[in-house]
Sequence to fold (290 residues):
Amino acid sequence: MPIKNSELILNSDGSVYHLNLKPENISDTIIFVGDQDRVEKITQHFDSIEFSTQKREFKTQTGYYNDKRLTVISTGIGPDNIDIVLNELDALVNINLETRQPKTELSSLNIIRIGTSGSLHKDIPVDAFVLSTYGLDINGMMHFYQLEGITNPEVEDAFIKHTNWDKNKARPIIISNSEYLEKHFESDQTFKGMTGTAGGFYGPQGRVLRLPLQDANLNTKLDNFNYKDFRITNFEMETAAIYGLSKLLGHEALSLNAIIANRATGEFSKDSKKVIENLIQYALDRIVNL
Fold:
């Protein structure tokens, strides 16, 4: 049966509802950024731009970098926005928007996140790059999908025990990156580890302004978690959702983060813009070889 209009919402021009995109507007290699202003910080390096659009926080530009066609999309902040972006991108390549039927031959996108994050360890300094081998979902969004085969129950159980995880919170889940993309982007310039993905910036990441936390020691527990070489290197709000949805939908995904803060030492980068620019150039130089 065709997918209902209420489930797959299209604009009057036939583009997908939130992203304002049609299938021909995107490449098969897509860079995710959180901040819409960061889109042009990447595409300023392009040789040419063939398409540009924006709706709400979702800004998209498609063009060429060293003869490789690339798309850059701003996702906004948080796993809820990743849910919108990844589902609509998948619809563009794997659903016939005219018949509203899934295609018999499915396509796989390469998705590379270029983001910023805070380190949880003294040995991962500000201005470093972190390549996320796994995403640790502690926000609960992925539990709305059937997750069989993509989680790591043994490590999740160890994490739950280590943190004395509150039963009223969603069960943490751990999802791996794309090994294919990891091989292309790893180097002696990248630290590796598991990236925690929170559902908010303040309480969910252990920050206190006026509201007390359910577990004031959670950040310390995250920092101290170490099980069979699994340790949590950094904390942000998108990676686990990107990895989870990409696994379920059949796409390749990798998250790269510029470390602009160190929660263990209290430091913040003296030139965060330069660090982000360095990571952008690092990623672009490797994307052309995909």
Summary: The longest strand covers residues 252-262. The chain has seven helices and 14 strands.
